[in-house]
């Protein structure tokens, strides 16, 4: 997210004299394109462009002219076009074409600075090379310094109005870099002695002092973290210019995968801070391409087949100092695999989309040829049930998207898709090759890309479950895969497969010598690996296996064996789930814990998940989020996600790319046993102070600082709450980028009233609880940390659903809960019992037949078993709840309040934007009385009952267990058809 100063996604609302709209193109429109030169140092600059719908200029384009210090510009006439496609070059074969995607520019004044496009005139108001030469402090002028340290903008504009005067045209005038972390602008106020001001990044993100604007006097003022200092000292006066370049990036490596290349390198250092890296690519027919990135990994797709490419990397700091180029790294691409066209996220507000959660391998089988039982097929009892662990697949899910849509759900959360490797890996959480989709899920015409595209075609989103914390116990292919001791003697030949160097494990293919798809001949060695530190390699121990076979030293993956490199993996066992070692040790012997504070692990994971962002997924559910320090999320992984989505799909898609983390706080406390570091809401915030540049040290510093500060020092938020009866623009300036699964409500859903009261108790410490993902049970737990699927009864299910679909947050349903599937059954017992007896049983038998849905919650036709499933009372309940929720915007994105309300589960919600004002009064199961509400006509969405309020009061009788009332101000009346619970 962009900043820590009360930034708003929309333009600021202040004086009525302001016209805060970005100009649209008109006939005869022009674009003045400003291009930043400081980090290019080209001898010449050309703009090669094509108006929208028009033809490209002749290469190399038109020459750009000097504008002001570090900027060149060119004004072009677009006619009736609403914008232009653009690239830049030096006239000698070096190009900046936005990493092959070109720049998509509009009209008016536009800046392109280090790959970032903004609406601004960086030279406005000046005629020479420096339009703002520094503080004058004289009468009639105001010099403003604005701190960008928290917001991280590359372009800053000052939108201002002298007292008694008029506002500048949006976005205002460009501010120049003054020194590290500061921009500056001097304004002539004439006879005025003060001005109103707001700041923005040229792309619609504003700091307008939370809607109040800033008042700045003549002389020198600073604005930092929403604090104005009048008659301030020059914040840059004592700072010597930064002329020291960062160190040269080291260990640059390039790895080709088809027609894509993943480039990684070690971080550079700088006397101030490294702010970005500049990657230069040569090779192929497209010439030289220069790309700017902020992380130490770059994934480049859509290259030419069977072509050698060479990459060099330079590091840059905030002052624009560039290191020398790194040693070159080369990679040769292979053949392009025939695949579906990459998708694009739907990019809409995630709060509008109820989520259906499936274990893909257990949902519906569309292709039996990719079913695999694995090494535990017999032992688990799955074989006796003809129920291989890998049974469901993408084809089966694609075939039943209309079933999910027919329920009214518009987002599908699927378990991890990366290639897994372990003895029992159907669930996806034992990743082995993070860059490859598990072939046991794919079929011809039903690849992962096909699933994404099929869902999007139906208006449905795909949320991919991702794991940053750990790999399988066999390591991570492409990063580190250890060799363990294994001898094919009389005892172990049944287990250890004969090595076959020509065979590559992919989970699906059968190795011909062993006849296994779970071949393991590449994981073992009788020869001690080079650099091994595992003590007593291969010597027998006193221990035996469950089968009675002798165990040898270094035979099994072990965190403390010495087989794992410390710059990639942590090398200890978990001692305390609530302690800091939960962040830096293995949780289980099948979960090898990444050293997520190391650049190698970070680069590997960022590069891997870039692939799935490029495919067009709509968001990530983050597994084991609590087991990675917040500093690492905030510094590395979350910014990398935002950067990649913005780069590939645009700013709007990035704003709505939904990241929600699993922070396993399984207690009823607001703060998890008093530990802020292990509480879900903690992860929704940016850091409160600066820590060491070293990620591992920073994690420890953060842990100690926050533990010492305690719960009272944590930030608070009103983002989920109404101000009286009024909706207010939320302040996401301190949002980390990660939303959360509402563990507190989840733990208390044994009773809906408990879930409601416990849930709202944590909302003031969550950045914005309207984005909380809310569910009753899941693939791990039921309420109260139960190991069984919810068995509270149909009435209780209906009540829980009525609460989830009308209270703040995003309602989420675990597959089959709509028919109380496997209620009371143990959710997971590993390979010690058949999957058919657990909460992870195969669901496809309930989906046999055909189903067609024309809209969300609208089933046109259904035959066979799926028709019976869709006729169940909870299915009808969910369908109508979705119908009501979609018709009442306040139930989707509104803030809430319980002020002036009596009732066990009762609240009011409102959402106001543009010309829409949606206000709803809700009560679940119980009676409620509302006071101090707006007068007007209220209609119940459940019954159609109409009430005219003239004294600010409304009383509602108890609707009954699982039933509810939703009185909407000026609402449409009854929505849908009465059923068992909504009547």
What is the secondary structure topology, with strand pairs?
Blueprint: E1 7-8, E2 29-36, E3 46-51, E4 62-63, E5 65-68, E6 71-79, E7 84-89, E8 94-96, E9 103-105, E10 108-113, E11 116-119, E12 141-147, E13 157-162, E14 173-174, E15 176-179, E16 182-188, E17 194-200, E18 206-207, E19 214-217, E20 219-224, E21 227-230, E22 250-257, E23 260-266, E24 274-282, E25 288-293, E26 297-300, E27 308-317, E28 329-332, E29 355-358, H1 360-363, H2 394-399, H3 401-407, E30 411-414, E31 418-420, E32 431-437, H4 448-457, E33 461-467, E34 470-471, E35 484-485, E36 524-525, E37 540-544, E38 550-552, H5 581-584, E39 592-593, H6 599-615, E40 619-623, H7 630-649, H8 651-655, E41 658-661, H9 695-709, E42 739-740, H10 743-747, H11 752-761, E43 773-774, H12 794-806, E44 810-814, E45 851-855, E46 858-862, H13 865-870, H14 873-887, H15 889-893, E47 895-897, E48 901-903, E49 906-913, E50 916-924, E51 928-931, E52 936-940, E53 946-949, E54 953-956, E55 964-969
Parallel strand pairs: 2-10, 8-25, 12-20, 29-30, 29-44, 30-33, 33-40, 35-36, 40-41, 41-42, 43-44
Antiparallel strand pairs: 1-18, 2-6, 3-4, 3-7, 5-6, 7-8, 7-9, 10-11, 12-16, 13-14, 13-17, 15-16, 17-18, 17-19, 20-21, 22-23, 23-26, 24-25, 24-27, 27-28, 31-32, 34-39, 37-38, 45-46, 47-49, 48-51, 49-50, 50-55, 51-54, 52-53, 52-55
Helix pairs in contact: 6-7, 12-14
């Amino acid at each position: 997210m962009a900043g820590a100063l009360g930034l708003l996604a929309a333009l600021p609302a202040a004086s009525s004299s302001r016209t805060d709209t970005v100009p649209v193109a008109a006939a005869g429109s022009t674009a003045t394109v400003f291009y930043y030169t400081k980090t290019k140092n080209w001898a010449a600059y050309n703009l090669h462009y094509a108006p929208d719908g028009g033809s490209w200029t002749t290469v190399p384009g038109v020459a750009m002219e000097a504008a002001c210090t570090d900027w060149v510009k060119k004004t072009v006439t677009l006619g009736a076009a609403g914008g232009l496609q653009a690239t830049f070059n030096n006239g000698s074969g070096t190009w900046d074409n936005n990493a092959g995607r070109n720049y998509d520019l509009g009209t008016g004044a536009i800046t392109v600075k280090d790959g970032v496009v903004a609406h601004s005139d960086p030279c406005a108001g000046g005629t020479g090379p420096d339009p703002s030469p520094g503080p004058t402090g004289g009468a009639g002028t105001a010099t403003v310094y604005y701190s960008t340290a928290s917001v991280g903008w590359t372009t800053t504009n000052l939108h201002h109005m002298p007292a008694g005067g008029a506002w500048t045209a949006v976005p205002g005038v460009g501010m120049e870099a003054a020194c590290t972390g500061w921009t500056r602008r001097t304004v002539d106020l004439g006879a005025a002695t003060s001005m109103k001001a707001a700041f923005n990044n040229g792309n619609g993100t504003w700091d307008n002092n939370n809607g109040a604007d800033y008042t700045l006097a003549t002389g020198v003022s600073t604005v930092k973290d929403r604090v104005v200092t009048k008659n301030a000292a020059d914040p840059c006066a004592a700072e010597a210019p930064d002329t020291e370049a960062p160190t040269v990036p080291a260990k640059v490596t390039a790895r080709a995968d088809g027609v894509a290349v993943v480039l990684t390198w070690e971080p550079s250092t700088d006397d101030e801070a490294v702010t970005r890296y500049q990657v230069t690519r040569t090779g192929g027919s497209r010439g030289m391409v220069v790309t700017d990135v902020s992380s130490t990994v770059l994934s480049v797709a859509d290259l030419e087949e069977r072509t050698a490419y060479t990459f060099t990397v330079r590091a840059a700091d905030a002052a624009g100092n560039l290191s020398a180029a790194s040693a070159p790294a080369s990679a040769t691409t292979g053949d392009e695999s025939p695949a579906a066209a990459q998708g694009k996220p739907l990019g809409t507000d995630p709060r509008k989309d109820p989520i259906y959660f499936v274990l893909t391998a257990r949902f519906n089988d569309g292709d039996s040829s990719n079913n695999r039982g694995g090494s535990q097929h017999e032992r688990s009892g799955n074989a006796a049930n003809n129920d291989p662990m890998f049974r469901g697949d993408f084809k089966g899910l694609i075939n039943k998207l209309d079933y999910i849509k027919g329920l009214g759900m518009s987002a599908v959360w699927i378990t991890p898709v990366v290639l897994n490797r372990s003895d029992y890996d159907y669930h996806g959480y034992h990743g082995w090759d993070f860059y490859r989709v598990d072939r046991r899920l794919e079929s011809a015409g039903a690849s992962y890309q096909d699933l994404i595209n099929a869902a999007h075609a139906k208006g449905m989103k795909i949320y991919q479950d991702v794991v940053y914390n750990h790999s399988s116990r066999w390591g991570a292919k492409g990063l580190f895969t250890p060799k363990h001791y294994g001898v094919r003697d009389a005892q172990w030949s049944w287990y250890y497969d004969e090595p076959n160097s020509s065979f590559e494990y992919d989970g699906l293919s059968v190795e011909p010598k062993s006849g296994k798809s779970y071949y393991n001949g590449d994981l073992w060695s009788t020869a001690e690996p080079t650099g091994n530190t595992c003590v007593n390699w291969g010597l027998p121990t006193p221990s035996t296996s469950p089968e009675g076979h002798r165990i040898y030293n270094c035979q099994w993956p072990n965190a403390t064996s010495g087989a794992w490199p410390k710059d990639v993996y942590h090398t200890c066992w978990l001692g305390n789930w609530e302690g800091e070692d939960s962040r830096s040790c293995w949780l289980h012997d099948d979960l090898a814990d990444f050293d997520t504070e190391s650049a190698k692990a970070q680069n590997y994971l960022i590069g891997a998940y870039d692939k799935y962002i490029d495919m067009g997924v709509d968001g990530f559910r983050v597994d084991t989020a609590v087991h990675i320090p917040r500093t690492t999320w905030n510094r590395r992984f979350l910014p990398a996600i935002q950067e990649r989505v913005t780069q590939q799909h645009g700013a709007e898609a990035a704003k709505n790319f939904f990241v929600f983390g699993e922070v396993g706080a399984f207690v009823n406390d607001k703060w998890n046993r008093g530990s802020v570091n292990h509480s879900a809401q903690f992860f929704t915030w940016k850091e409160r102070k600066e820590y060491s540049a070293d990620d591992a040290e920073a994690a420890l510093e953060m842990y100690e600082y926050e533990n010492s500060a305690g719960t009272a020092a944590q930030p608070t938020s009103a983002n989920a709450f109404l101000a009286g009866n009024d909706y207010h623009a939320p302040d996401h300036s301190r949002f980390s980028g990660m939303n959360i699964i509402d563990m507190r409500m989840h733990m208390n859903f044994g009773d809906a009233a408990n879930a409601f009261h416990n849930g709202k108790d944590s909302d003031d410490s969550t950045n914005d609880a309207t984005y909380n993902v809310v569910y009753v049970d899941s693939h791990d737990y039921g309420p109260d940390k139960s190991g069984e699927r919810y068995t509270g009864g149909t009435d209780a299910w209906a009540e829980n659903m009525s609460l989830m679909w009308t209270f703040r947050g995003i309602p989420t349903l675990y597959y089959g809960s709509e028919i109380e599937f496997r209620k009371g059954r143990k959710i997971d017992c590993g390979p010690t019992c058949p999957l058919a007896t657990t909460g992870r049983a195969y669901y496809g038998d309930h989906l046999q037949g055909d189903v067609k849905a024309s809209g969300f919650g609208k089933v046109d036709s259904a035959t066979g078993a799926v028709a019976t499933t869709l006729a169940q009372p909870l299915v009808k309940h969910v369908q109508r709840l979705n119908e009501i929720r979609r018709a009442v915007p306040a139930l989707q994105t509104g803030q809430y309040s319980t002020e002036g309300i009596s009732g066990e589960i009762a609240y009011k919600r409102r959402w106001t934007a543009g010309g829409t004002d949606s206000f709803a009064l809700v009560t679940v199961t119980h009676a409620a009385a509302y006071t101090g509400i707006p007068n007007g006509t209220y209609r119940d969405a459940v019954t159609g009952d109409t009430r005219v309020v003239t004294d600010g009061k409304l009383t509602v009788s108890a609707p009954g267990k699982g039933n509810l009332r939703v009185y909407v101000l000026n609402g449409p009346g009854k929505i849908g058809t009465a059923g068992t619970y909504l009547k």
